[in-house]
Design goal:
Largest sheet: none
Number of domains: 1
Shape: elongated
Structural class: mainly alpha
Oligomer: single chain
Number of helices: 2
Length: 47
């Protein structure tokens, strides 16, 4: 049961990060690129 919950959380987190990166790219261009890179690193650390 715990594995299923952590898997669901991981999927939700990945989807949130992807949506967030898309938002940043369309919102600030080059700045969005820098921010999404650090967000990517943070997401990897969480997972």
């Amino acid at each position: 049961m715990k594995e299923a919950i952590s898997e669901a959380l991981r999927v939700v987190l990945e989807g949130w990060v992807a949506a967030r990166m898309k938002q940043l790219f369309s919102f600030t261009g080059a700045m969005g690129t820098l921010r999404s890179r650090s967000e990517n690193r943070r997401a990897c650390l969480i997972v």
